[in-house]
Amino acid sequence: MLETKEQYKQLGISEEVYAFGEKIEQKLKERFQKVDEVAEFNQLKVIQAMQERRVSEACFNYASGYGYNDLGRDTLEEVYASVFHTEASLVRPQITCGTHALALALSANLRPGDELLSPAGKPYDTLEEVIGIRESKGSLAEYGISYRQVDLLPNGTFDYEKIEKAITEKTKLVTIQRSKGYQTRPSFSVTQIGELISFVKKIKPDVICMVDNCYGEFVETIEPSDVGADMVVGSLIKNPGGGLAPIGGYIAGKNECIENCAYRLTSPGLGKEVGASLGVMQSFYQGLFLSPTVVSGALKGAIFAANIYEQLGFPVIPNGSESRHDIIQAVEFGTPEGVIAFCQGIQAAAPVDSYVTPEPWAMPGYDSDVIMAAGAFVQGSSIELSADGPIKPPYAVYFQGGLTWTHAKLGILMSLEKLVQAGLVKLS
Ligand SMILES: *Cc1c(COP(=O)(O)O)cnc(C)c1O
User: Fold this and answer.
1) How far, in Å, CA of 291 to CA of 268, rounded?
2) Which pTM does this prediction carry?
3) What does the pLDDT read at residue 368?
4) Which of 99, 232, 382 for mutating ligand 1's site (highest number of atoms within 8 Å of CB)?
5) Segments of 222-301 assigned E as strands
6) Which residues fall within 8 angstroms of residue 70, CB to CB, at 6 or more apart?
7) Is the pLDDT score of 2 beyond 80?
């Protein structure tokens, strides 16, 4: 379509970059159809949960103060429990982000003397301070909770032999991160996570298995809670907020675990009964409703980016053809300049703040400078088109999101345009 090509040109995409992108997209039709099929299934799952829990207009009412009998909040927690097939859930604007949700789930269910085990290698950067791997005020370590970690085997799979040895009488909770986060290991499929949980439970049936589900929601037709996880934890400014939730986190799981979380979030004795939803409920419901489709757009963007940069010879994780278990795409540029040019392209394609130029900075919770590109409607939202990269070897950029596939496509083409302009990539 000539007009579309002209429109891209006006936005700053050269003819050669556009043509390169079109050639790649043509080859992805079948992949994209599979992504749409998963979205269709998950959309139906969400609608069914909302119908069964009798979501009504009254659920969107403003609740303030203590928030006793907040219908919208309580019904939404039933909807989440239904979607994740769990006994209960906690879905709150008072859970400020993913790290907070994870810290809450851990600190609520661990007691002094207990041990936390990560059988899948190093957890997400910000959890290092939560756990106390890096010294930090208020860490689990300060409360006498010890930590043990079993690294993945060189091929990225679980080291079952060492995991078996690491499970002791002290082991109370096992944490498994579905997505790669800021690492270059593969992300785990829900099936793989299920196998690991079965293994752990066979050795110690009463151990709590928690999954950091960030970026994984609705990528597959099943969730970790369908394969034995006692708690799944995530952020509402990622997948399940559908781009509309302005804040929030969720924990879905066993009654006992969720009760512990509620007492820790508010107060012993109060638990789930308090915590007014302050008018955010419509966005939480509507965001969850849109989430399966939004996630499908983000996935298409990730697949498109993988195929573009793979074609250009950069290591990409996952690669252009392998199956997807989260919405993150890593591209290794090998130089800080590559990471910076990529992020500046993503920023330049944004609907918001497209005129600002992102630069690396020392962000709290991370151990190196990080560059972040996000022209988002919700600050820091990473279900919206965003990219970030720690400025350290292997100089990989982690790219995710896009509320629509077309925006993701523009962002990726713009990133390529910036790399071409910086002389870091040659297309012919
Ligand atoms: C984003 C993320 C977190 C932390 O979430 P924040 O909302 O950034 O605090 C934790 N784990 C994984 C795997 C993530 O992707």
Assistant:
1) 33
2) 0.95
3) 87
4) 99
5) 231-235, 249-253
6) 63, 275, 276, 277
7) no
